[in-house]
Design brief:
The protein is rod-shaped, with a radius of gyration of 22 Å. It has two domains: 6-40, no CATH class; 57-104. It starts with 5 loop residues before the first helix and ends with a helix. 57% of the residues lie in helices and 0% in strands. The protein is mostly helical.
């Protein structure tokens, strides 16, 4: 299949807001092929499916190490997933506590449930 023009790609990706996979389906090719075409045309690609959320190291350390909150409680407060909290702990080299270790106030809340 011949590659579409850069103008067509720009219209589909930027103007119409289609994703790489949607363009690939429409043109009958693979997503990596569309990504290559976009790169060759100098069209900047979006970074991913989800908006990146900032999780400041000092705030994470305060909540996790000082206050002893659970990953679930931290995720809820920061508006991110538990996986994101876990990934940031690893990225910031913050040592993990043992499984089930959290503050007594969180324990009291779960005991009342």
């Amino acid at each position: 299949m011949p590659s579409p023009s850069c103008a067509d790609l720009e219209r589909l990706y930027i103007t119409d807001g289609l994703g790489v996979a949607a363009i690939a389906k429409r043109l009958g090719c693979s997503a990596p092929t569309v990504s290559n075409w976009l790169r060759r045309c100098g069209i900047p690609t979006r970074t991913g499916r989800f908006r990146k959320r900032e999780v400041p190291r000092d705030r994470l350390e305060q909540l996790y190490r000082v206050e002893g909150r659970s990953l679930r409680a931290i995720a809820a407060e920061l508006g991110v997933s538990v996986g994101t909290v876990n990934n940031r702990l690893r990225a910031y080299n913050i040592p993990r506590r043992g499984t089930g270790a959290h503050t007594s106030s969180e324990q009291a809340c779960s005991d009342n449930s």
